[in-house]
Amino acid sequence: MAGKAQIPTRNSALIAMIADEDTVTGFLLAGVGNVDLRRKTNYLIVDSKTTVKAIEDAFKEFTSKEDIAIVMISQYVANMIRFLVDSYNKPIPAILEIPSKDHPYDPAHDSVLSRVKYLFSAESVASGRR
Amino acid sequence: MAVKEEDSHTQCSEAGEYEEEEEEEENDTQNGEQNEKRHHPLDDRHALQFLDSLDDYLIQMDSLSSILRQGWLELASARHSMGASRVNGALLDLKFHNASTSLRVTQDDDDSGVGKAHFTLSKWASSGNGENGSGEGKLREDKSPQLRHRSISPLSETPEKTSSQIGASLIVDEQVQKERLKSLSVFGTLVSPKLRTAQLSFETALGKLVEIANTRSTLLSAFDQVKEEIEGTKD
């Protein structure tokens, strides 16, 4: 899965964000923001008015763009589109679930950890090793 | 009495030797069984690497949480001193501009030939003024391995080289300061010092985020290898 795919070398790839206003503002201060000629941004600010459809579309767009290497998404936003986040298994762009102001990071919901959790089930280890 | 004590001591030592021999025999048989069970000598290494990267991932996530908390607090302080209308998302620059901070993605081949993505952060590298900015960014990036090398053997460094490196780092620092100010200028020319510290906190968070991305890459690569080995032993 992650290791088998060929990874093309890119010299200036972007970091995309789907998060709350303060997180996006902070990372934009750090110089992550990019606006292309069509005025499309590499971030989506999620507030109470943002629809799940808009989040889904942004996630699909960011994960399909070739110039994006990392998509960081607030974990509570990722929970809204969990089916999409969990089904994504490409190495690039890498999806990173980050905490937000009102929702602390919960490892139990992290897509990466739920993917590797398989190895910790006693059944799979026992049948594999013995 | 002394003779008796000596006798008992020799008996004890003999009994101890027998026990040791028995233990050695048991250990040999256990080792033999373990060697038979172990099809690949690298099994444990991959499993250990997987567990290590998993542990690292969780620790780094915890660290990211605290850095971000600091950043949010500083941003809130800046908003408090400057006013909510001066620090909000509506002021963000929506004109065409390139990201000043970008990533370099390379394929990092493992010993076992499995490729995994490796991310390198290039801070304040590509500004709107084109080639100049990206060149300095490269300079900054190329410098880091040299610095690491220098720390291993500090005596081998010549004074001329050091002065030229200091000069280069000053140019880079100037460029970085310029880019930082440019980024802050969205919120006005006179900004709260808290906003500057918030910017630094989010820069640190960004560095941590890239570390997490690399750990995630190692974790998934190790996971794939362990999974393959488990499936191999099932067959």
Describe the structure.
The complex is a heterodimer of chains A (130) and B (235). With 130 residues, chain A is an alpha/beta fold. Chain A is 37% helix and 19% strand. Chain A has six helices and four strands; from the N terminus they run E-H-E-H-E-H-H-E-H-H. Chain A has helices at residues 21-29, 52-64, 75-80, 82-87, 111-116, 122-129; strands spanning 10-19, 43-45, 68-74, 94-98. In chain A, strands 2-1-3-4 form a four-stranded parallel beta sheet, with helices on both faces. The longest helix of chain A is centred in the middle third of the chain and has 13 residues, at 52-64. Chain A is globular, with a radius of gyration of 16 Å. Chain A starts with 9 loop residues before the first strand and ends with a helix. Residues 125-130 of chain A have low confidence and may be disordered. By secondary structure, chain B is mainly alpha-helical. In chain B, 71% of the residues lie in helices and 7% in strands. Chain B is built from five helices and two strands. Chain B has helices at 2-37, 43-82, 131-152, 159-184, 193-234; strands at 102-109, 115-122. In chain B, strands 1-2 form a two-stranded antiparallel ribbon. In chain B, a hairpin with a 5-residue loop joins strand 1 (102-109) and strand 2 (115-122). In chain B, helix 2 packs antiparallel against helix 5 (193-234) and helix 3 (131-152) packs across helix 4 (159-184). Chain B is elongated. Chain B starts with a helix and ends with a helix. The relative contact order of chain B is 0.13. Mean pLDDT of chain B is 73; it is low at 1-6 and 128-157. The interface between A and B is large, with 61 and 77 residues. Strand 1 of chain A pairs antiparallel with strand 1 of chain B.
